[in-house]
Write a structure and sequence with these properties.
There is one protein chain. The protein has 11 helices and 16 strands. By secondary structure, it is an alpha/beta fold. It folds into 2 domains: 62 residues, Phospho-2-dehydro-3-deoxyheptonate aldolase, domain 1 (Alpha-Beta Plaits), CATH 3.30.70.1140; 257 residues, TIM Barrel, CATH 3.20.20. An 8-stranded parallel beta barrel has the order 7-8-9-10-11-12-13-14, surrounded by 8 helices. α3 packs parallel to α4 and α10 packs parallel to α11. The mean pLDDT is 96. It binds phosphoenolpyruvate (PEP) and manganese (II) ion (MN).
Length: 340
Amino acid sequence: MMVVMTPGAGESQIQAVVSKLETTGVHVLVMPGKLTTAIGAIGDPERVLELGLEGMAGVDRVVPISRPYKLASSELAHHEPTRLEIAGRRVGGGDTFCLIAGPCTVESREQTLAVAWTVRKAGASMLRGGAFKPRTSPFAFKGLGLEGLKVLAEARAETGLPVVTELLDVADADVVGEHADVIQIGARNMQNYALLEIAGQLGKPVLLKRGLSSTVDELLMAADYVLKEGNEAVMLCERGIRTFEVATRFTLDILAVPWLKLHTHLPVIVDPSHAAGDRRLVEPAACAAAAAGADGVIVEVHEDPEAALCDGPQAVYGRDFAAFAKRVGAHAAIAGRVLA
Ligand code: PEP
Ligand code: MN
């Protein structure tokens, strides 16, 4: 941490800050400048923050030097990108691109198996599908629950595709953990810290979606909640954020992809479907994500979107998905990646 004094701060005020800092055991370094004095505090930043130095006479501001996220950061122990292996599929590491695809929601056995085969034949590496759905309206279809998880397990057994599905509530942790290959934490739960800790304890990879109105720093601190449980297998997911722009469902923060690649070692996945809200925009967004260096995309696909119980307008038609996958794969190749 760095404590910047006001230009008029006197020697006694500087000394008072130094004495207070020393009570925490941090290493203190006074750096007099032409106009102001800065005081460096090297050590535990949390303890320095707790001192409330901003309220002391002569203090202008207290500035953090290191990043607030520790385990997700690429600046400390982890410089190399993390490579995950999920049922034989490689995610992260910089040379592969994963295509996760499937319905928004498991509606029936037939619907899920049909779309699972479609995406598998088109080269998808994982199947997505919600059994427990977070819905804005409490009266909307909330998913089939355990029955939906069983359908997903059957789809995995038939197609060999590992399953990505959302854990919505701590109460369902065991049953979701048993059925899923990857635990999805939805955007609305990114800051549900109790759920993040439980997800970290399930021993399965976690796909953590960025909150609707969360910064990338907050996303990485949320990832730290999972990582601190000893679970190193975390994928970050940019899925669009809320801005003043309402033409698209959310605003896809495409620059979050290279920014995250710079600041974290974790794989970065993009969800173009929920950002776009309109299937005509999903492919360009997926191609942009691939070209920007994402480690994969997670896309909603439905054989009959007009009949879908959730998110039909953004679902790519099953019949279009092979061509979609090909074009997105070509953009991943621009970024030096192969579909895996
Ligand atoms: C989903 O992937 O089905 C979903 C609800 O996404 P999000 O949490 O990003 O809204
Ligand atoms: Mn959806």
